[in-house]
Design goal:
Layout lengths: L5 H16 L3 H8 L4 H8 L4 H10 L2 H8 L4 H10 L2 H9 L3 H8 L4 H10 L2 H11 L6 H4 L6 E3 L4 H11 L8 E5 L5 E6 H6 L6 H4 L7 E2 L4 H11 L3 E5 L5 E6 H19 L12 H28 L1 H6 L7 H25 L4 H34 L2 H31 L9 H22 L7
Parallel strand pairs: 1-2, 4-5
Antiparallel strand pairs: 2-3, 5-6
Helix pairs in contact: 1-2, 5-7, 7-9, 8-10, 15-16, 17-22, 19-21, 19-22, 20-21, 21-22
């Protein structure tokens, strides 16, 4: 199997199209199946509907499954709509149960049930079991295709078992041992098996100290555990310790990408609308609640400005520095928010470290405030000729940035305490809160020193 580079991609595409056009099945299969599955999927996406039908007819269900697995969900739905129910079922039979379950969970229930009914009963039962678990749990992302050993088996017997069942397992680098009641008893690495005497039993080779995850654990917690221990896979057990399946590192990569997209959507108030495949109407529907809420918060900002209308009328120059103050406060708060949300996501922020982190963020805000204040003290007198105005803006910036970092750091911690995703303390939300605080500080100081300002 080869991986295409840019130079050979066009040549292979032209040759494959020629074989499709001439209906040369043997040469098409030879060239197409010599490609990496991802390259097959990429090439498939460039074909016309008629050419895709040719592929459906000449590839086996297993070969179709390899290509299907490399497509995104939108492309998978398109493919499934172009083939009949029986072909769909045969193809999903050849996929790992967790991948098949993930796909069927994304299509309409009626079509999913039709495909499940047409699938092999054993395969369908495994898929149904996985679909019965909540989507973002260990049970929802685990696979059933793993090799389970007995403690009394010899190394030689396990090697033979690997030769027979290894091709169908998602991974063979870790092999898990179950007792008579199917409870997790130990783990054996492939390396341990290779270097062990063939007459040794699994009980002598395995490690009984196994790190496992519960079937109901959140997928993000599973990802943290696999990252912490540098596992390639982790066993999934019930509350009673019964071995149900495994979560592999490739699934964890998908989880991390999903969680990152989710957190990015939360922080930017675009949750659910960052997918480039959704329509403008769908994106607007998902963003609208945040925008409307922020609009009402904006009315509070407007009210704050209205309360100091007389101050603004007396010294219109004060309006010049409002954007500077608001932008600086918003940016500083969002930076603190990003630091805390990332720390919570990685598990580096816990009860013992909260005090230290808040102290650091406050110190950071104070130092940033001092730096900005000193800069303003120098610049404003040069361009606007007023030391008092410079002092007002400088002190306002200092106080606002000091408070803004604490707001940006504290709100996600409070939200996390309520068992809500801290990323919902979005950047726009933090920014608006800090705008209100900054304006209150700015105009309060300016009003108290109004008599010293140039009219």
């Amino acid at each position: 199997m080869m991986k295409l580079n840019k130079q050979t991609r066009e040549e292979h595409a032209k040759a494959i199209l020629d074989y499709i056009l001439t209906k040369d099945i043997d040469r098409f299969r030879e060239l197409f199946l010599d490609l990496h599955p991802q390259d097959r999927a990429d090439m498939y996406l460039t074909l016309s509907k008629q050419d895709r039908k040719f592929i459906y007819n000449v590839l086996t269900p297993e070969e179709l499954a390899d290509m299907f697995d490399e497509l995104n969900i939108i492309e998978q739905k398109k493919l499934i709509n172009e083939i009949d129910k029986e072909t769909s079922a045969l193809m999903l039979n050849e996929m790992y149960a967790d991948d098949a379950a993930d796909f069927l969970a994304e299509i309409e229930d009626k079509k999913a049930q039709e495909i499940l009914t047409a699938m092999d009963q054993k395969e369908a039962n495994e898929v149904k079991e996985l679909m019965s678990y909540p989507k973002e749990t260990a049970g929802g992302i685990m696979t059933k295709e793993f090799i389970k050993l007995q403690a009394n088996s010899t190394v030689a017997e396990v090697i033979e078992l690997l030769r027979a069942e290894g091709p169908d397992a998602e991974t063979i680098y870790y092999l898990y041992v179950a007792d008579e009641e199917d409870k997790l008893a130990g783990v054996v690495s492939l390396r341990d098996l290779i270097i062990a005497p063939t007459t040794d039993t699994v009980a002598n080779v395995m490690s009984s100290r196994v790190v496992s995850v519960n079937v109901h654990d959140d997928q993000e917690d599973v990802a943290k555990l696999i990252k912490k221990y540098d596992f390639l896979a982790a066993p999934v057990v019930t509350n009673d310790g019964v071995l149900l399946g495994i979560v592999t590192v490739d699934d964890i990569i998908d989880v991390l990408e999903e969680e990152t997209d989710e957190d990015f959507g939360e922080i930017s108030a675009t949750r659910g609308s960052i997918d480039s495949n959704i329509s403008a109407v769908q994106a607007a529907k998902k963003r609208a609640p945040w925008i409307i809420m922020l609009m009402f918060l904006g009315l509070i900002t407007a009210e704050v400005i209205g309360q100091f209308e007389e101050t603004l009328e007396a010294v219109i120059l004060l309006a010049v520095f409002m954007p500077l103050l608001m932008d600086s406060a918003g940016n500083t708060g969002t930076q603190a928010l990003a630091v805390i949300v990332r720390g919570l996501a990685l598990g580096s922020v816990d009860k013992s470290s909260i005090g230290k982190i808040l102290k650091r963020e406050f110190g950071t805000g104070v130092l940033l405030g001092l730096l900005c204040a000193l800069t303003i003290i120098i610049i404003i007198p040069i361009f606007y000729g007023s030391v008092v105005l410079a002092a007002i803006v400088a002190v306002s910036l200092f106080l606002t940035l000091s408070i803004a970092t604490m707001v940006g750091a504290t709100i996600p911690l409070l939200i996390n305490k309520l068992n809500i995703d801290p990323a919902v303390a979005s950047g726009p939300f933090i920014t608006t809160i800090n705008d209100i605080i900054g304006l209150l500080i700015y105009f309060s100081i300016a009003t108290s020193l109004l008599q010293y300002l140039p009219q």
